[in-house]
Amino acid sequence: MFYLFLFIISLFLTALATLGVKKLAIFLKVIDWPDKTGEGRKIHKQGIPLLGGLGIFVIYFALLFIFSNRFLAGDLNFSHLLAFFLGALVIVIGGALDDKYNLAPQKQIIFPLLAIALLIFGGVGIERISNPFGGQIDLGSFAFISQGLLIVWLLGMMYTTKLLDGVDGLVSGVGAIGALVIFLFTLTTRYFQPDIALAAVLLLGSLSGFLIFNWHPAKIFLGEGGSLLIGYILGVLAIISGGKIAIALLVMGIPVLDVLWTIFRRILQGKNPWRFADKKHLHHRLLNLGLTQRQTVLVFFAFSSIFGISGLFLQSRGKFFALLVLALIMIIIVIVFNYLDRRFVSAKPKLLLHVCCAPCSSYITRDILSSRYQVIWYFYNSNLNTLQEYKKRLMAVKMVASRFNIPLIVEPYKHPAWLEKVKGREADLECGPRCQICYFDRLFQTAKMAKKKKIKIFSTSLLVSPYKNTELIGEIGKKLALEYELEFLAENFQANDGYRLSQNLAKELGLYRQKFCGCEFSFRPEKKAI
Questions:
Q1: What is the DSSP pairing of strand 350-354 with strand 457-460?
Q2: Helices 170-185 and 293-310 meet at what angle, rounded to 10?
Q3: What does the pLDDT look like over 77-123, one tens digit per residue?
Q4: Is the CB of residue 71 less than 8 Å from the CB of residue 195?
Q5: Alpha-carbon dihedral of residues 182, 259, 332, 282, nearest 10 degrees?
Q6: Exposure winner among 404, 416, 436, 500, fewest CB in 10 A?
Q7: For the segment 362-418, what is each residue's pLDDT rounded down to a tens digit?
Q8: Domains of the chain
Q9: Greatest extent of the chain over all pairs of C-alpha atoms, in Å
């Protein structure tokens, strides 16, 4: 009855706190807005308040301190509780800053690392772990190994819940299942730990109270701090319960393996796994198969519940084999989705995209075109004023093509030939006759290459720039399409603030961003032609 009381009071108070945090987030304008293009990783259709983890944090630790006499009745002392609290506080503060200011990845990780440092300073550590083949492995006399394992474990748990947070109710629900399993486990006769059971049931109640508003359609999101906080608390509970890492891994097994596969997959593709984002997490894959958000969440709940509860009845060796089964399931999932990827890609029509520069091309390829076409890049830019400028732009284009796995065709630099084509038009204003010749030259070469490669559709990243005559570019492209029996994609890539988004992506990827059109005549500070 006491644990039921804790569950109800934590659920009720967190629900009230969540309502307050929602109003605070709206007041502070900490809102997660959907992708304007509709092609990004975000799947919600309207702005949703963030900072949801703040309500969970406040109620959970307030009740933990109120009932600290019971929480500290076992092997824990006040320094452990204080370190636990301060680490969570750092995570929530860092998460709130990231929700508001969208911090760079190298700044985001400072807060989880500081939280772990506070735990270590407070005396929290992994003293022993179970040996799947019998007995335990004592780490008490190996401080560096213990601390290193603690860092890896908690970072792994926090970044698993962070990267899992892509569907309404997924992280808060899986976290609640993890809390329930730890609660039941620590009430068993063999592992009876009422202090840990108290901390687990408070987490179960807090997450359940939040889930009321986070279930699809969500009224509030966890935010960066909330998603990290859930992994942090589950990770700490697994440690202070006597190194019950296997139990937490059984609950979080599929999400953890999904994160590991994501990191490995991105490294194989030559991409930075921390700076590069995509829509190939398991929850995205399930959504792409046609599952609803609720159905996707229930699939994860099923895995977490089945394997988590199985851990209550398995000994160390049994848990080890259960983890192997989870790994086998993940391998099968990876094989199936890779097969479906190949089928899906081969079914999409090819599009030859003339690439003027990396920033514009990266944005429209990743966020607009790749979901509909097999995009092939074509770098033909003999208009560039110097070979040095040509190489700088090409280097950025090659880097992105490699990172996004985009086929690239490169034409050699022939600036004298281009100068001959615009001879007599050197004094023209920008977007005048000289630029029209340049547009035609690049689109003409692109159409010829598309015909040669038997690609039916072509377009150009020139359509992204607000400094180009996009209407004229569209007219030229359509005329060439008729001549070569092709289709020209004259899409409005500037829609939904496309140019600004392309520049933001360029900053994120660290790309070279030129400050002029390209030819030597575009340097002149003259007005644009009407």
A1: parallel
A2: 20
A3: 999 999 999 999 999 999 999 999 888 778 889 999 999 999 999 88
A4: yes
A5: 90
A6: 416
A7: 888 887 888 788 899 999 988 888 888 889 889 888 888 887 788 999 999 898 888
A8: 2-252 (no CATH), 348-523 (3.40.50.620)
A9: 92
